Amino acid sequence: MHSDNASSIDQSSAVASRARVAQLVRNLVAGTSSSSLAGRARARRWNLFLRTFPDLERLKVVDLGGTPQFWSASPIRPRSLTVVNLATSNSPATDWVEVVTGDACKAAELGLQNDYDLVFSNSTIEHVGGHDRCLAFAETVKTLGSRHWIQTPYRYFPIEPHFVFPGLQFLPIALRQHVAARWPLSYTKSMGGNLDDPLDAVLWTELLSRTHMKYYFPASEIVSERFAGLTKSLIAVRR
User: Fold this and answer.
1) Which class for 33: exposed (0-12), middle (13-18), buried (19 or more C-beta within 10 A)?
2) Please, are residues 118 and 209 in contact by the beta-carbon 8 Å criterion?
């Protein structure tokens, strides 16, 4: 009996150790730290964004799908900021951010005016749920302001960024669910998700191609953000 207990403890320790290693690797690749690969990519994206809109501190900005925490990392704050998100924000109130809980695909229900200098979105359009919803999201972008910056991960980058798995976006849904539930670098796995949660995450994640982005934003320049010479994400820009 004592041997069985010792074996069980050893197995639990090994599982915990593997989980720690997986979390460490995921943090290095896709973590929020400025030293992670994703963090360095975000810093380059901020620099490109500020070069594209050097007058940001004078602009009235609406962010579709963002959070106040995201903007706390910005080297320069806009004159005013409205953040639209389906999720209710737990962020402490600030005097420079207005938080609107709502669906960015339903412009009429947001109660916002067409008086924004810039419409911004970061890694949101691939989660809105299908072609008709992407069209509605794009229509909201065009309704709220004349200039925009809409970023999304590129469908044909070899590593799927949400689950950090090669080619996951091209697999059948059942296999994607399997990977999301068991792959140690998957964010659903690293957060202790069960079989229902990974399937939901997979179904709500559909990466877009350049053809998609040109269709949704025909009057915009589609800018490629590169990593190791490959296009990692696409940005629809209207200056």
Assistant:
1) exposed
2) no
Distance separating alpha carbons of residues 157 and 29, to the nearest angstrom: 15
Please give the Cα distance from 107 to 179 (Å, whole number). Answer: 35
pTM of the model: 0.84
Using CB atoms within 10 Å of the CB of residue 137, give its burial: 0 to 12 exposed, 13 to 18 middle, 19+ buried.
Answer: buried
The closest alpha carbon to 88, from 104, 77, 102, belongs to 102
* Phi-psi sector, 46: left (phi>0), alpha (psi -120 to 50), beta: alpha
Q: How far apart are CA 218 and CA 154, in angstroms?
A: 17
Cα distance between residue 152 and residue 214, in whole Å: 12
C-alpha dihedral sign at 177, 227, 136, 131 = negative
pLDDT tens for each residue of 167-213: 999 999 999 999 999 888 887 665 555 556 899 999 999 999 999 99
